Amino acid sequence: MTVLDSFAESLGFTPDGFQLDACRAIEAGRGALVCAPTGSGKTVVGEFAIHLAHARGTKCFYTTPIKALSNQKHRDLVTVYGEDRVGLLTGDVSRNGDADIVVMTTEVLRNMIYAGSPALDRLSHVVMDEIHYLADRERGAVWEEVILGLAEEVKVVGLSATVSNSEEFGRWLAAVRGDTEVIVTDHRPVPLHQHMLVGTRLLPLFDAGGRGVNREVLAATARAEQHRFRPARRPDVVARLQREGMLPAIVFIFSRAGCDGALAQLAATRMRLTDEAEARRIDAIVDAGVAGVDPADLEVLDFRRFRAAARRGFAAHHAGMLPAFRHIVERLFNAGLVKVVFATETLALGINMPARTVVLERLVKYDGRAHVDLTPGQYTQMTGRAGRRGIDPVGHAVVQWGPAMDPRWVAGLASTRTYPLNSTFAPGYNMAVNLLRTVGYADATATLERSFAQFQADGDVAADLAELERARARVAAMTESLAHHGDPGQVEALLEYLDLRAEITAEERAAKCRALTERHRETVTALRQLRRGDVIALPRGKRVELAAVVREQHGGTEPRPTVVGVRGFTGRVDPGLFPAAPQVLGTIRVPADAARRPGRAVGIIASEIDRRGITGPRRLRRPKARPNPRLKELRARLRAHPLHADPVADQAMAAGDRLREARAEVRRLEGRVAAASDTLARTFDRILELLAEMDYVERDDADAWRVTAEGERLARIHNGADLLAATCLRRGIWDDLDPAELAGAVSALVFENRRDTGAGIDAVPTEALADAIAGIRRIHGELAVDEERHRLPASPEPDAAFAGAMHQWTAGAPLAYCLEAAAANGAELTPGDFVRWCRQVVDLLQQVRATGYTERIRDNASAAIAAIRRGVVAIAA
């Protein structure tokens, strides 16, 4: 019996053809790339690689992109192999790292490779789960570092979502790793039925043949467009799914506040999806999951509301929640106890939470820069959660229709099951010194030239050059044509005039965006400052309703105080409700139980507001736009331009716009060709030149590059601001800080504010910490000048908005106090955000402890790490 035969027998089901093909390739000593839909069972291939290595007495590492996936996979493998044979390394957790089977995040393996760790001895296989994460713009380079850095005899098993350029990716893997089998399948073991929810009507998206859009959907959406359409309320959506037998369900909502709001909407109804026996099981799991959390912290975390919702069978799941809460939700959902989860797209990243139905409320999401349409890959990744193998005969994907949503576009999105995998690999400072110290300059250059990024660039440059020539020819033809319509000398003047108009349009949009951001910031600040009993004016359609605050909320990303209105409105209000920051019109006394029983308090509050003679405006209006000197200057230049209001110019406007677009396309293509020609090796050279100026590397007598003692320290700092951190340590600007101040200073190198509030930045508790932050900024400014001179990407700017809160937490302050300190300093954090940033500060502090120049700073880093790892931060690990 072969190893594969014994493994197949242990599964308890017959493996699919693609699984067997991949396993045979691995057993034959080849690498494998498996591209398959979510839920298709591709992890079976990775599990076989582990089984094979175990049977042969070698090692297998299983890498994942996120710690939650590592934790989950570790639990699965412990069940099969036993706790003593399986290790876990995630940065936060180091458990049994010398085992023959180790689950880890990809960054941990990268660091092991650069350090030449003895744990790599006898390593025969590396499974890279979610290998398509290589395209992630923030962390994708790490995957390529691992693939390029592993010893030649190690076989890589890549598990990927279906990508459209799998053959290209497979060719590259074969080129750098040796013989690699590429297995691609679009087969789902559980068929997926696509639906559209129009109001409360649940309709098949496709016709009976599955090829075209269902005519009934087109008719229903057309009628909805013509008439006043109201989307179904979330409780109604859940009720409909329950009637159709389509629970359990995951409802994807692309904002944390939206998930929490959906949970509040269900909680406000009498809906219950569990029986008493299930509720008791839920209580036991929930209570075990928060054992050890301080009761005061549970109050801040709104634990009672979380527990009450879970008992009734629904929950939220997003990155803003405490990790312990998310783990509880995952356990409850997988146990069939929670029937509906409102989640952000982070849940789609490989966490094992399959459902019968997936609902997408919208097909637009915020990507950190702008609101963009979902890609086919994102759609497939999320809807791939629908259909539990061995439980559901079919899975269901439901898209809620909204105005201006074209069902044909949705059908195209649902039909396109692939997306391209594009490399984000580029050398950085840490990578440069590590390559130089481990393989030397020549091999380092060769390694960079062997990257997938360079592989793709070399393949694209020929096509881009041909397209550039065609684009230049179009520009020449359009310029000649436009010149025939008038004086040839007027063409450039016309383009100058059009550029001016475009600049005005862009500035108007930017001004509007700034105004919206400013208004939101002012509203958030006003809501956070409200106190119990304050009376404000609520917009209610075109009318205004006075309301009193009955429960304050000072922390959180977006404060949502609870109010009771004189006309019967009760509930939480959020910043998006107000056209302008609410003003306190007066203050009254409210009943003690008004927050728990708001309906009973309406009459009392209305009488008290009337008795005190508090009145409000008849209508709430948006504030007037502030003067914009830049816009005023641009408009003056437009009016003064010779072509302004020229009828001849007006006739040539359309042709001029087309020429402008054609010239922009030429510039875009020229940039792409230049970027492809500027190879990664040349970037590496420019990095070494800068590092040489700063004495992190040097040339020896034979004119060969070598890493200095300072460079050896830089090699052990794995952070987006690695060079900045190394220089801060080298110059000693953190040497005299106590542990809490050190944690606060280090936080400025890892923290990134989700939203620029512009409030109270740099309000830190001690003068020493303020001086340290000023020193960090000064060094960053010097570095920015050097990077520009060497034509290198700019290092991320330090952000001190979390420094005060980090200092207070390290000094022993309670969670509520630290969240308020963060908010006062411009960092809008949920408890989950707070824990995540604390963990990242710990990660960099561990590197400070390993690379610090003095015993004092190393001891202070150790003390800070111990102080941070308490309460909710400790339980999160």
What is the rounded distance between the termini?
A: 42 Å
Question: Can you count the beta strands?
Answer: 24
Q: Determine the CATH superfamily of the largest domain.
A: P-loop containing nucleotide triphosphate hydrolases
Please give the CATH class of the largest domain. Answer: Alpha Beta
The quaternary structure here is: single chain
SS strand fraction = 5-15%
Named at the architecture level, the CATH assignment of the largest domain is: 3-Layer(aba) Sandwich
Domain Helicase C-terminal: 240-437
Pfam families: DEAD, DSHCT, Helicase_C, SH3_HelY
Organism: Corynebacterium sphenisci DSM 44792
Domain Helicase ATP-binding: 23-181
Quick overview:
With 877 residues, the chain is α/β, with parallel strands linked by helices.
Structure, explained:
- InterPro entries: DEAD/DEAH_box_helicase_dom, Helicase_ATP-bd, Helicase_C-like, P-loop_NTPase, RNA-DNA_Helicase, SH3_HelY, Ski2/MTR4_C.
- This is DEAD/DEAH box helicase.
- Pfam families: DEAD (PF00270), DSHCT (PF08148), Helicase_C (PF00271), SH3_HelY (PF26090).
- Keywords: ATP-binding, Coiled coil, Helicase, Hydrolase, Nucleotide-binding.
- The protein is α/β, with parallel strands linked by helices and 877 residues long.
- It is built from 33 helices and 24 strands.
- Helix 5 packs across helix 6, helix 11 packs antiparallel against helix 14 and helix 27 packs antiparallel against helix 29.
- 42% of the residues are buried.
- About 1% of the residues have low confidence.
